[in-house]
Structure formats: structure tokens, C-alpha cells
TrEMBL record:
Domain Glycerol-3-phosphate dehydrogenase NAD-dependent C-terminal stretches: 175-315
Keyword check for Repressor: no
Enzyme Commission code: 1.1.1.94
Protein family: Belongs to the NAD-dependent glycerol-3-phosphate dehydrogenase family.
Cytoplasm as UniProt keyword: yes
Species of origin: Marinitoga aeolica
Cellular compartment(s): Cytoplasm
Residues that hold NADPH according to the record: 10-11, 31, 47, 103, 135, 250, 274, 276
Gene3D superfamilies associated with the record: N-(1-d-carboxylethyl)-l-norvaline Dehydrogenase, domain 2 (1.10.1040.10), NAD(P)-binding Rossmann-like Domain (3.40.50.720)
Domain (Glycerol-3-phosphate dehydrogenase NAD-dependent N-terminal) ranges: 3-155
Pfam families per the UniProt record, alphabetical: NAD_Gly3P_dh_C (PF07479), NAD_Gly3P_dh_N (PF01210)
Protein name per the record: Glycerol-3-phosphate dehydrogenase [NAD(P)+]
Length: 327
């Protein structure tokens, strides 16, 4: 297939390698001339240091080139950039399959990526690819399993067949809502898990956070129409585990730095990659109050990041909530 990748950060670059290895023709769009020149030289040191990028992956600075030449378009940009990219590709878009890699909710609308694309592009060929898949490991062909979810199982199967290989195994799923929400909200829980790492590296506390984090992701998801089972799969529990525990996780890192006493602005300023949970937690905070959904870890994470709450006080408050049944 001719495949166009929009976004040349760590995940866009890494998935380009997977797809090239699978025999596809790949063009990758970047808006940055330095990244463009690096890719031409067979590397992307800013986003994927130490990895060689085959020169047959063709970089371009022209968005129209990746759209007009492609049978399938991959979106590998942050969730907050989806609406503006969708507006830009609208005049060029001719109903190709769109595969979204972004994991986040739009701050101003609380919308998932598929809802934004539906609004802007009236898209009917949408697949979301999500699951435990750090770019740094995928780029090194480390065995990875992931989920392709769509309302149209034919499309999910096209993605499954074209993206899978011996080290990249794709399962299909028909629950877009669950897969998108699992990927978006685990980033918030990973920040809180990182906070625990930064404060003391406490195993008991982190295991509890992951478990109760999954409970609140599931609670929110079900209220939004997701299937409960999705959250015990790769896009739910699987991604939550990897993001809360990995040395590669950007979201866990933000939490760890907060736990060590650094300020959010300072942390973000010094990071070159996106930590989606920093934004998704904003989208969720107001909404969960309005919808009356119990998400205490999400609330406390917001309060620590944006209301200056001492992380130790937040942990104390979580521990001192009214005692209740686990289910
Ligand atoms: N990295 C990973 O391991 C994984 C990431 N994801 C998800 O994939 C998405 C992308 O992540 P990742 O590749 O890590 O992010 P990076 O921060 O590594 O790269 C982001 C890319 O998006 C571009 N970009 C940022 N803002 C805009 C904008 N407003 N308009 C157009 N392009 C923009 C950047 O361009 P520029 O360089 O010019 O700023 C860069 O090419 C996120 O939602 C993330 O959660 C999912 C699974 C794994
Ligand atoms: O989604 C991811 C892994 O599946 C990436 O997580 P981070 O953004 O926290 O690195």
C-alpha cells in the first residue's frame, strides 16, 4: 500500500519503520526542516535517537503530498493537534482509511479523536491503533501486541493484515470508544504512578494505583458507552501497565519529576516529546464533576498538577476517603 504518515515524532517515525518492513511505500510528513533533513540522512535524533531510519522512508514538508499519494493515512500527532490537522487535510481528503495513533482527549470539548474527525471530515473509514507500544521498543523490533479498533471490522482487518509482522502483532476490536478511552486515560493514571516513583518508589502504592486507576477508567468508559471487557485487554490494562512502569513513558516521567518536587511548567519546557496525560486530565476534570463520575485518582492528579496540591497530601486524601466495597 501507499501509506502517508502525518507526524514525525517518536511514534510516527517508529511505525514508519514497521510499515516499510512490511513492504509498504511510506511518505512521512514533518513541519520541521531539521527533522526533514535528519530523516533524509537516515535518522531522527531529536525523537528517536540511536535508531537508523531507512532512507526509503520519504520525508516531506508538504502535507498535500502525504494525502494525495496515499491509500491509507496514519495520524501520529498529539490529540490537541488533531482538529487543526483535520481542517488542513479536509480539502485534500478523498475518503482514505485513517488510522489514528493519538491517545488523548481534546481539552476544550472532552472529545475523543474519532469524534473530532467525524465532526471535521465526516469520516467513515476510521481505525484507532492502541495498546502497550513504546516507540523506542517498536523501533527495535521488540515483540509488541496492539489493538486495531473500528466500527467496520473489514477496516480493522485491513489494518491488522497490513501492520502485523513477526514482532508487531495486531488484534482487532469493534469498541472504538473503549479503545480510545483506555489509551487516553491511562496517561493520567501513569502521571500519578510516576508521582509515587518520585516520592519513594513504593511498590504497594503503585500496584494499588494501577488497579484502582483501571477501576476509574472502566467506570468512566462504561458511562461513555464503552464495553467493560475492552478495559481488561491490551488497550486497557495492557497499556496502563506499560505506561505506569516503563522507563520510556513520558507520562510516568512527568509524574516522577513532580514527585521529586519539580514544577510542571519547568518539566514540560525541558521535554521534547508530548505527555498527553497533562492535557487529558484537564479535559476530564470538569467533566467528571458535571457527570458525577467517581474518579478520585484523576481528580487528585489534576489538583497536584494545576492547583498546587502537595502530592503527599493528595495521597493522604486518597487513603482517607470513605471506606467502601471494592466493587
Ligand atoms: N511515543 C510513543 O511511544 C507512543 C505515542 N503514542 C501517542 O501518539 C501520539 C504522538 O506521540 P509521539 O510520537 O510520542 O509524540 P512526539 O512528541 O514524539 O511527536 C509529536 C509529533 O507531532 C508533531 N506535532 C505536534 N504538535 C503539532 C501540531 N500542532 N500540528 C502538527 N504537528 C504537530 C510534532 O512536530 P514538531 O516536531 O514540529 O513539533 C511531532 O512530529 C500521542 O498522542 C501519543 O500519546 C501512542 C503510542 C506510543
Ligand atoms: O502510549 C504509550 C505506550 O503505549 C506511550 O506512553 P507515554 O506517552 O507515557 O510514553
Amino acid at each position: 500500500m501507499n501509506i502517508g504518515i502525518i507526524g514525525s515524532g517518536s511514534w510516527g517515525t517508529s511505525i514508519s519503520k514497521v510499515l516499510l518492513n512490511n513492504g509498504h511505500n511510506i511518505k512521512i510528513w514533518t513541519r520541521d526542516e531539521h527533522v526533514f533533513n535528519s530523516l533524509k540522512n537516515g535518522e531522527n535524533p531529536y525523537y528517536l535517537p540511536g535508531i537508523s531510519i531507512p532512507k526509503s522512508i520519504i520525508p516531506t514538508l508538504k502535507l498535500e503530498e502525504v494525502i494525495s499519494d496515499s491509500e491509507l493515512i496514519v495520524l501520529a500527532i498529539p490529540a490537541q493537534a488533531i482538529r487543526s490537522i483535520a481542517e488542513q487535510i479536509k480539502p485534500l481528503y478523498s475518503n482514505q482509511i485513517i488510522v489514528n495513533l493519538a491517545k488523548g482527549l481534546e481539552i476544550s470539548t472532552q472529545k475523543r479523536v474519532s469524534e473530532i474527525l467525524d465532526e471535521v471530515l465526516k469520516i467513515n473509514k476510521y481505525v484507532v491503533l492502541s495498546g502497550p507500544s513504546h516507540a523506542e521498543e517498536v523501533a527495535r523490533d521488540i515483540p509488541t501486541s496492539i489493538v486495531a479498533a473500528s466500527n467496520n471490522m473489514e477496516l480493522a482487518k485491513i489494518v491488522q493484515e497490513n501492520f502485523s509482522n513477526v514482532s508487531f502483532r495486531v488484534y482487532t476490536n469493534n469498541d472504538i470508544v473503549g479503545v480510545e478511552l483506555g489509551g487516553a486515560i491511562k496517561n493520567v493514571i501513569a502521571i500519578s504512578a510516576g508521582i509515587i516513583d518520585g516520592i519513594g518508589g513504593w511498590d504497594n502504592s503503585k500496584a494499588a494505583l494501577i488497579t484502582r486507576g483501571l477501576a476509574e477508567i472502566t467506570r468512566y468508559g462504561i458511562k461513555k458507552g464503552a464495553k467493560k471487557d475492552t478495559f481488561s485487554g491490551l488497550a486497557g490494562l495492557g497499556d496502563l501497565i506499560v505506561t505506569c512502569t516503563s522507563q520510556h513513558s513520558r507520562n510516568r516521567y512527568v509524574g516522577e519529576m513532580i514527585g521529586r518536587g519539580k514544577k510542571l511548567d519547568e518539566i514540560i519546557e525541558n521535554m521534547n516529546m508530548v505527555a498527553e496525560g497533562v492535557y487529558t486530565v484537564k479535559a476530564l476534570y470538569e467533566e467528571i464533576k458535571d457527570l458525577n463520575i467517581e474518579m478520585p485518582i484523576t481528580e487528585k492528579t489534576y489538583e497536584v498538577l494545576y492547583l498546587n496540591k502537595d502530592p503527599r497530601k493528595a495521597i493522604h486524601e486518597l487513603m482517607m476517603r470513605e471506606l467502601k466495597d471494592e466493587n
